[in-house]
Fold:
Amino acid sequence: MRTIPIRWNNSHAYDKALIINFVRTAMYTSLSTEKREIRVLRIHPASNPSDDIECTLATVSLQEYPVYDALSYVWGDANITETISVDGEPFEATTTSLPD
Structure:
């Protein structure tokens, strides 16, 4: 298993309208049921542990047998978010608390 160093950063202020527009246009475009499409979030390795999390979102067809690892994620409190980069745009992701 490979560990990807990441850092959450609350020091940036982003335009909420930009984030909302990104979510509407990029994340929630229609998927083709005929092609059996799914969305895959690629989390890019950081060169430095202090780097922000950077991801890209891709639409892939299950008919092409894409290779991917599944990651289980539980949505956290909508009021507690961290900013990550998805396709070069800021995205507010809820955080998940892990037990000590």
User: Anything to note?
Assistant: Residues 1-22 have pLDDT under 50 and may be disordered. The longest helix spans residues 16-27. Residues 16-94 form one domain. The two ends are 22 Å apart (CA to CA).
